[in-house]
Amino acid sequence: MQTLENTYLRLTISEHGAEMQSIIRKRDQQELLWQGDPAYWGRRSPVLFPLVGHAYQDQFRVGDTTYHMGQHGFARDLDFDVISHTPTTVALRLTSTDDTLERYPFPFILTITYTLTQSTISVTWQVDNPSPHLTLPFHIGAHPGFLLPHYDAEAEVHGYLAFNVTDRLVSAGLRPGGYTDPETTFDVPLTDGLLPLTNHTFDCDTILDCRNVLNSCTLLDAHRQEVLTLRFQMPILALWSPNGGQSPFVCIEPWHGCCDPFGFEGQLHERPFTNLLEPGQQFENTYEIEIG
User: Are 9 and 25 in contact (CB under 8 A)?
Assistant: First the structure.
């Protein structure tokens, strides 16, 4: 485990998956990150790479070869190397190996840097393509779960989400198996600019807004007091809580990639929202979690 700490926060990150394990707000010693109870969901904040969501039938194609990969890729299940560490920043790196090349035939270097600045956590993803001749197709996404303060399963509303839009979200429709329905979207209306979190908010399973218009999401408690805000520059925001919303946490997930449309059988580089990184080039993106 790697621990970062300042006056405001204590952040713990596992080298396994470079996954955040704990966010403690020091003024009241409040844990803010979901703690991975497998009765609901056994993870806490996995990094999604090199795929986000499901490839159709868990298969993707490169040329004439078909490869198998499960939901959200493999980075979350591999050990990263710590390449630098100070009291308030840590950088962890995953480099392609013979094993990853058998499953995903592209060299890559993925570096994830966590930084504390007062009450803000910055998470920077850096993807390098070391190949001299292959273009690197990839997705990357965040999947942090945040505790709903003073959760009461019997309460009508457990909290709220606010966004940089105030009228509605527009979600892609989902097919069984976790694929988008290319023919369907549905509106998610906001009430006074807020999305109430109830036991039925996620009867649709996942709210998946792919319009590239969202760049912030604020979690508020049941009394509409701000808990934390995510800020990001990514085309997709996914919102999810298991059991239709009957769970003590909500996942707020900025994505630079997406699950396949139902029936998709194209090439890997043709998957929607795929990043194409040319030989020798670098991709970088940062999202922030500001604690209230």
Answer: yes
